[in-house]
Structures are given as C-alpha cells and as structure tokens.
Amino acid sequence: MTDLVGHFLIFTIVATVLLVVPLLVGRLVRPWLPTEEKDSIYECGEPTIGTSYIQFDLRFYVVALLFIIFDVEVAFFFPWALVFGGATQLMDPTLSAEARSGLTDKLLNLPSSGLAEPISAETAHTLALTGLCDILVFFGVLLVGFAYVWKRGDLDWVRAMVVHARQARTNSTSLLIPRGGSASGGPGGTTPRETAVVP
Amino acid sequence: MTFDQILQQLVDTTAGTYGPFEWSAAYFRQTFEIFMTSSLGRFSPEIILCITIVSLLKLRLFNCDRWIPPYATALVGSIVAVGLALYQFQTLRMSAEPVVAEFFTGLMIYDQFTVYFRLLLLIFLVLVVALTVVSGIPDRDDGPDFYTLLFGAAVGMMMMAGANHLLILFLSIEMASVPSYAMVGFLKGRRPSSEASLKYVVYGAGSAGVMLYGLSLLTGLLGTATLISVDGSTPDLASRLGLVLAGNTAGTAASLVSNPGLTILLAILMVFVGLAFKLSIVPFHFWCPDAFEGAAAEVGGFLSVASKAGAFALLVRFCIALTGNPDPSLAGLNLSLGIGLGVAAAVTATFGNLAAYSQKNMKRLLAYSTIAHAGYMLMAVSALVIIRGANPSGVPGLTSAGLDAEARRCLEALLYYLAVYLFMNLGAFAIVALIRNQIFSEEIEDYRGLAGEAPVLCVCMLICLFSLVGLPPLGGFWAKLEIFASLFQAGRVHWFMWVVLGIAAVNTVFSLFYYMRVLKSMFLTERPVGARSALVPFRSAPGLYVVMVSVPVLLLGVLAGPLSQTANNVARILLR
C-alpha cells in the first residue's frame, strides 16, 4: 500500500517539476521584445476577425455526434472481428488437433493450456454464421438510423435554405424555366455555408 | 458450461431439437415452444420492441407513414409484445416446478419476477401510446421520433427487471435514462422544457458516474459481477461478500485494501446513489419536479411510473443479491443496509409530502407526490432487507419459515403497490394532459369549477387522487396496507421499522390535504366567468380513456385477492 502511494507521490512530483522547469528556464533566458504582430492572437496565419469567445453553431454538434456514433460503431467491430476471425479459422475441418486446441484457447481467451475442449468445425460454423447475422443486424439498425436522420434533413447544413432551394427547383421545373435561370441557384449552395460560420 | 452449450442456449438451431420441417400447426407450435426456451426466445418481448423501433423508422424513411400512422405501428408492436409476455407469464405460472433460468450466458435472468415486470411495463406502454393518441402529443411529424424514444426507454426498463450482472445493471439504467432525457425536452422551442431536459441530463450523468465508480469498486473487491448464480457454478456477490468479509480475500483486489468491509460499504452506497437518482429518493430528487414540470404530462406519466418500476426491480435484485448469504457475520451489514434504506424512505416520503403542500402547478404537485410514493415503496424494500438479514434465533415468536413468509409479504406489497400505482398515477397525469388540451393550463388555480364542465375527468381524478392517498375502497388502500403490515412485521426484527411505520402513517394523513386542495378546486368552487370552457363528454375518446384507466384502480381495491396471490407467488420464486 505504501509502495503504491510512494509511486504516486514520485510520479506527481516528477510531472510537476518537468512542467515547471522549462517554463522557468524559458522565462529567464528568452529576450522580451513585444511587437503588435507578436501580441496578436495566432490563428493558422489568418488575420483574426472579432473575438474568439463566440457561440458555436449547433450544427457542428450534430456532425460531432454523428462522428462519435460511427466511431463507437467501429470500436464495436473490433471484438467481433476477433471472434469472427477465430471462428472462420476453426471452420476448417482439416485442422490438426493441436492447432484446433491452440485456436480454441485463443478464441475463448484462455491461457494456452490445451485444457479446454476444442471447438469442433460444425460449432465454429454455427458461431461464424451467428456472428455474421449479428453484425449485419447491428450495422443494419445503425444504417436505418442514419438514413432516417438524412431523410429528415437533420444533416443539411442549413435546413431552411435547403427546403427553400428544393421548393425553388420544383417551381422552376414546373414552369419549364432552365435551371440556371432560377434565382435561388442550386441546392444547398455555398452562400448559406458562409453565413453559418461567420458569427 | 462448455462453449457448445452456450452457443446452443443462444440460438438453438440444431435440427435435432426442432425436428424435420412440416407444414402443420403442431410443428409450428412445437417450434415456437422450443424457441421460447432459447435465450432469444426469452428476450423476445424486448426484441419485438426493437423491431417496432426499426419499423417505425423505416416506414418514415419510405414515406409510408402517410398511410400507416406511427401510433398504429407503435400500438401493434406493443400489443404483440404484451401477448408474448403474457404467454411467458402463463407458461411460468403453469410450470410444475419453478423456472429460474439464466440467459445470455448468465448476464440476465428469467423468472416470474422478470416477466411480471415485463408485463407491467408493457401494459403501461400500451396505455401510454393510447394516451398519446387521445391527447395528440406528439403530432404526426414527430411521431416516429417520440415512439422510438419511448420504446427505447421501455426496453431499457425491461432489461433492468432481468439484470443479473453489474454490467447489465449499468447498461440498462443508461438505456432507460438517455431516451428519457430527450423525451423530457421533446416540446421543442419551449424554454422550460429544454431547461428541464438539461437539468435531468446533468444530474443523470453525475449520478451515473458515481454509480459506475461504485460498480467498479464492487467488482474489483469481490472479483465477480454476477448478482445471483442460479446453479452455483459461478461465484456471485453474496458468496464472495461472505468470503471477503471473513478475511479470505485471496484472488481479489480486496487483498490490497486494509479494511475491505468499509470499502465495500462505500461501493454499495455509490451504487445506491445511481439507483436513488432513478427512484428520485431524497437527496437525489432535485431533477424530478423540474423535469416533470418542463416535460409534457404524458412523458411525466411515463417517467413517474415506468422508470420507477424498472428501478425498483433492479433495487430488489441488487438487495437480494447482497443479502443472499445467511452467514451471521454479514448480519451487521444487512441490518445497516436495511436501516439506511428505511431512513432514506422515511425522509423521502416526508419531504415529498411537505413540499407538495405548497405547489401551485399540478404537474409539480404530482412530481412531489411521486417522490413521496417512491418513499413508501422504498419502505417495503427496507423491510425486506431487514427481514432477510435477520437471524431466526434472535427474533422472538418467528421461526425461519415465518421469516421467509414475512419476506415474501414485503415483496408482495411492493409488487402490488407498483401495479396499482401504474394505473392511479397514469390516470392522474393523463387527466392533467387532457385538461391541458382544453384549457391550456396546468395550474391548480385554473381547475376551479371544472367538475361542472368535464365531470368524467374530475370524477376519475377524484378516484386516482383518493387512491394515491390510500382511502379504503380503492387499490391504493390495499397497497399501503400491505406495506404497513410488512413494516410492522419487520419492526419485530428491529424496532426502528416501527418508527418508519409511524412516520409513514403520519405522512398518509398529511398527504390527504394537498390532494384534497386540488379536488376542492375542481368540485367545490364556481367556474370563474370568462374562463376557457372544457367540455369533455363521457362518450368521447378522452372520457373513455380516463374511465379505462380508473376502473382498474377501483377493481384492484375491491378484488385484491388474485393480484396479491400472483404477487406472492412471484415473490416465493424470487426468494426461494
């Protein structure tokens, strides 16, 4: 117990020292010649416009959320891939008993002792099939959700604009006016995107 | 269990068990019966709900919701699920020997208790969907979203009832919570609604974090996460608890800690924080009034009943797992657990009733009443823990068998209370929603003289509120009586339960006053001149709906026998 606390203590001290020392050295050594350019906020080489304490648009949040969903989904694929891979390897009926036992231990996450009953090729076949169906259902459900969100228009960058553009397009086609001639331009054009980002 | 067996338990596709295919009713019946004993079959009501969710989304995707309204899909899905759950319950009731089976490799458990709660929650789901049809929230455009959230939460709550693993405990709570947050904020563009939703999320996230910490401590210290092992093949909480507290900590992280008992107590306390949040037990109740006031009354009704029912099922499972070891060295832990729950219950009931007294908004009043009722129901659980932890030789006049019977009675009281509570609380919230549709207000002030214009709604409100108080001919009376009786019996084990009983009795009298204030406003005052009229005739959809919900409240008061007998059987198998 004291051992553990000691380690924590040492770790904390080392982390603090390693952080403080470079800052201190920098402060003592560096020349101090401020100019207006140097004091301005650095933003990827662009001149800054206004303050950076602005309210971010909610739409960024939607995109981030979607990213998280698919990110987590891929994370769920990894353990599945391990089991599925093991099962497909075991499906081979010509495997030697030794290899089968080794693969079984690996699949069941046991120390390679050879004590576990080896999984037969038929069982592995069922497992692989079940696994495939599982992942298809899992992925299918996610895709339905994704398609639903898409269909609802929650992914459109500026919802109202897109609806507007769509209506304009139907109007223009119904009036048999060439597309380029319609006043509102193509669907989801670049103008609304710019208005969205600038605070 | 070998790997083959696990796989077979899950899918059961071996041709041998099903027999060769033939086109006959007998074959299909047999196949169905075999399927229902596999893991997927035991999970089938939940799966039906999941399928309903996906179909709701798909129908909208292909623009079919113009012909098939979302509520119709939701109603069909929930009714099919009720049918399956009824089938499961009947099968369990009729089986010669009690069925208690683990499924999904022991992550979940299938017994009468699980299916009782499933049935309760599904019937409630059907009633809530019917209410949304009658009251018109959500509109057709938002329908798929709303029902998706509703069904998702319901699946989580049903999983709570069947959880047999600490991981599923956490997962199911989160699964029920996350859609609830969104549902509370469902009335878009309304400030109070969004605020309520945000408060709920923040509290929920905080308590979930604390609970997760507690769960990880518990799992690490005990070296197992299984609540109850049916065949004793895997170590469960009770057996490991006995070992660790006896000082035999080999193979667990408890060997690193100088005083594992204290740490375990802390871990249990942290898990209770998460559960108390879901149950809105003082001091984790702050979200409740705000969330209920901001949310639509339909959502409030759903959360107040379904999420409580699920959380109580989980609490009972957790408490039974903790008190499952008859080792006398654990008696101290059990006793302190029981008394702690008793104190929390008494404080919650008192606080809920006192705070409800000064409310002007009907939904807020019902929210505080919900808190108070959570307190009453928690009393039954505390009595259960006290009786389960008692040493038979230490209680004068009670044998071991007598103690078992009393423990059953406690659980029976809880199950009965939840069943009655389902109807009476849903009735109250439904009437609030239906009156809101007429007069656009939820203030008690604006309810003045409504009895003359909407007699059905007001009379049903009277039934529901009197039942919430616990007046004799109604279901709430029997429910309270059973809880008080079990508290009295638990008092023979430890005197503190008599104190709790006294507090509960005083609370019941006190609660009469604030419920009466609503009724007085409805029945005994004149409708002010110029107020919006709320003409709801008896023979209209809202009228028939509230009658349909109120009649069971009356019936359960007059005919308490069958349900309490069923509840007793459920308890007998759970506590075997």
Structural account:
The complex is a heterodimer of chains A (199) and B (576). Chain A is mostly helical. Chain A is built from 7 helices and no strands. Chain A has helices at residues 2-29, 36-39, 58-90, 97-107, 121-152, 159-174, 190-197. In chain A, helix 3 (58-90) packs antiparallel against helix 4 and helix 3 packs antiparallel against helix 5 (121-152). The two termini of chain A are 54 Å apart. Chain B is mostly helical and 576 residues long. Chain B has a domain at 326-576. Chain B has helices at residues 3-11, 15-18, 25-35, 39-42, 44-61, 70-94, 112-135, 143-162, 166-184, 191-222, 237-245, 260-279, 287-294, 297-322, 331-356, 362-389, 400-439, 450-453, 455-469, 475-491, 496-523, 541-558, 561-574; strands at 101-103, 108-110. In chain B, strand 1 and strand 2 form a beta hairpin. Chain B is built from 23 helices and 2 strands. Chain A binds chain B through residues 1, 4, 104, 108, 116-117, 119-120, 123, 126-127, 130, 141, 144-145, 147-148, 151-152, and chain B through 2-4, 7, 10-11, 13, 50, 54, 57-58, 60-61, 144, 256, 258.
Unreliable stretches of chain B (pLDDT < 50, length at least 5) are: none
Radius of gyration of chain B: 24 Å
* C-alpha termini separation of chain B: 23 Å
Total helical segments of chain A: 7
Share of β-strand residues of chain A: under 5%
For the report, how would you describe the main beta sheet of chain A?
none
For the largest beta sheet of chain B, what order do the strands appear in spatially?
Answer: 1-2
Principal-axis shape of chain A equals flat
Total beta-strand segments of chain A: 0
Mean pLDDT score of chain A, rounded? 77
> What's the end-to-end separation of chain A, in Å?
54 Å
* Order of SSEs of chain A: HHHHHHH
Order of helices and strands of chain B: HHHHHHEEHHHHHHHHHHHHHHHHH
Largest pleated sheet of chain B: 2 strands, antiparallel
Question: How much β-strand is present in the residues of chain B?
Answer: under 5%
Helix percent band of chain A: 55-70%
Q: What value does the average pLDDT of chain B take?
A: 88
Shape of chain B: globular
